[in-house]
Structures are given as structure tokens and as C-alpha cells.
């Protein structure tokens, strides 16, 4: 058994892949051989640059504009991918927002939008690709959650709830599709060097036992690892520099 996943002939969809962790995952899956659908919401130019980088490496890629919290947009996106690249074999639910709010500032609209983008989107995209995966009896689904799913976090309770929900979704799907040859796992990064981390980087890095923030590429490496392991399902892999052990 090869320790390096071979994704030649596979098609991957990475949501929220125009920058940060999603971009790193898209590039890593392409390096492993996959054709990649780079989903984005509003950053078209950045998504195109990811597609160009993948093409430079000799792999196929397309940019797919879609609000993944909208069922109609998700359905249209999956149809586009099937026409231009083929059926989706690997789904990485990475799209997410982090609206920083304190308890006294958190609005119902903030809560609803966070749940829709971070959690509902994972449900919609999973439901859209599952029939094909089940028919082919092979699929890999990875949900990018957060250490905030099991800790207090720095964004707010709405973010905690959305990421904890993703972990519940991961476990629920995993038991129901494992006999169809599909694994469903989660990767939970904490304090990664992306735009979402905001300011106070040195202060936040000091909270990490390793002494630095993580990189998007380290999250992508963990994602590729769970995609390559056919025996692992329903698990959450922590990528946090030793911040906590759960």
C-alpha cells in the first residue's frame, strides 16, 4: 500500500478555495493527481490564479462561482463540474466565515449567516455529490472544522456552534455511508496563518505550545492524509501545534 495517495483520475471539489486553507488544499490535491474544482463566492481573480497554478503543474482545474449556502447554486455548480471535469470523487467542505462578535454584539442575522455558510453548506454539498459516490462505491469527504468546535475559540459562540455542528455532521454521515466505500472525516485547525486570524499574531502565536501559528499547507497535508486512508472514518484530526488534545 502506497503511503502517498494517488488521486490520478479523481475529481475533487474544494469549497472556499480561492485563498488560505482552501487554496492550499486545492494545490495539494492537484499535486496528488486530482482534477480540481476551485469554488469561490466573490474572489474571482484569486480563484483564477489558483486554477492557473494548478494548470502550470499539468493538472486540470476550473473555477466555480457559487454561494454554497444556497441549494440551487450548489446544484448548478455540481452540474458544471460534472460537465467540465467529471463526477466529484473528493469533496472538501472548507468554505466558512468568521464574524467576530461578543455576546452583547451578536445578532440573529450574524448567527444565521454563520450557520448557513459554515454548516448548511457542508450539508448541501455533501447531499449533492453523495448519489454519484454511492453509485461508484468510492468517495472521500473532509470537513474543515476548527478547534472552536470543542473549545471557547476567539470568534464567538455562533462560530463555535457552526463548527461543532460540522463535527456532528461528520460522524452522522460516516456511519451511514461507510459500506458504500465512502469515508467522512474532519480536520480541525487552530490558529492558522490566514486572513481570518486577524491582528495580534505574535500574541496568538504565543498561545501555541509549538511557539508559532500553523500554515495552510500543514492543514492541507492532514487533509490529504485522511483522504488517503480508507480505514479512517468519522474522525476529527486536530492540527493545532499542541494547544489541546481531544
Write up what this structure looks like:
The chain has 246 residues and is an alpha/beta fold. It has a single domain (11-239), classed as 3-Layer(aba) Sandwich (Rossmann fold). It has helices at 20-31, 44-56, 71-84, 108-136, 157-177, 201-205, 216-228, and strands at residues 11-14, 35-40, 61-65, 90-93, 139-144, 182-189, 236-239. The protein has a 7-stranded parallel sheet, sandwiched between helices. The chain is globular.
Uncertain segments are none
CATH C-level category: Alpha Beta
Average of per-residue pLDDT values: 94
CATH superfamily: NAD(P)-binding Rossmann-like Domain
Classify the helix fraction into a percent range: 40-55%
Class from secondary-structure proportions: alpha/beta
**Cα Rg:** 17 Å
Q: Which quaternary structure do these chains form?
A: single chain
Q: Give the strand line-up of the largest sheet.
A: 3-2-1-4-5-6-7
- Into which percentage range does the β-strand content fall? 15-25%
* H/E element order: EHEHEHEHEHEHHE
**Tally the helices: what do you get?**
7
SSE map:
Layout: E1 11-14, H1 20-31, E2 35-40, H2 44-56, E3 61-65, H3 71-84, E4 90-93, H4 108-136, E5 139-144, H5 157-177, E6 182-189, H6 201-205, H7 216-228, E7 236-239
Family: Belongs to the short-chain dehydrogenases/reductases (SDR) family.
Organism: Vineibacter terrae
InterPro entries: NAD(P)-bd_dom_sf, Sc_DH/Rdtase_CS, SDR, SDR_fam
Amino acid at each position: 500500500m502506497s503511503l502517498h495517495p494517488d488521486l490520478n483520475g479523481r475529481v475533487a471539489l474544494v469549497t472556499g478555495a480561492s485563498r488560505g486553507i482552501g487554496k492550499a488544499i486545492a494545490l495539494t490535491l492537484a499535486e496528488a493527481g486530482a482534477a480540481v474544482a476551485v469554488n469561490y463566492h466573490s474572489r474571482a481573480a484569486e480563484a483564477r490564479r489558483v486554477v492557473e497554478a494548478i494548470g502550470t503543474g499539468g493538472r486540470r482545474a476550473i473555477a466555480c462561482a457559487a454561494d454554497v449556502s444556497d441549494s440551487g447554486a450548489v446544484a448548478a455548480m455540481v452540474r458544471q463540474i460534472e460537465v467540465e471535469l467529471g463526477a466529484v470523487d473528493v469533496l472538501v467542505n472548507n468554505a466558512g466565515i468568521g464574524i467576530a462578535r461578543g455576546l452583547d454584539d451578536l445578532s440573529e442575522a450574524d448567527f444565521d449567516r454563520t450557520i448557513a455558510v459554515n454548516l448548511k453548506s457542508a450539508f448541501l454539498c455533501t447531499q449533492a455529490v453523495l448519489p454519484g459516490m454511492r453509485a461508484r462505491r468510492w468517495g472521500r469527504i473532509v470537513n474543515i472544522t476548527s478547534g472552536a468546535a470543542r473549545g471557547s475559540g476567539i470568534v464567538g459562540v455562533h462560530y463555535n456552534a457552526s463548527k461543532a455542528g460540522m463535527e456532528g455532521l461528520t460522524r452522522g454521515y460516516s456511519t451511514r455511508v461507510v459500506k458504500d466505500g465512502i469515508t467522512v472525516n474532519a480536520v480541525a485547525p487552530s490558529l492558522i496563518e490566514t486572513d481570518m486570524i486577524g491582528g495580534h499574531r505574535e500574541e496568538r502565536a504565543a498561545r501555541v505550545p509549538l511557539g508559532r501559528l500553523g500554515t495552510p499547507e500543514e492543514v492541507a497535508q492532514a487533509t490529504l492524509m485522511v483522504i488517503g486512508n480508507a480505514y479512517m472514518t468519522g474522525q476529527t484530526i486536530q492540527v493545532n501545534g499542541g494547544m489541546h488534545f481531544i
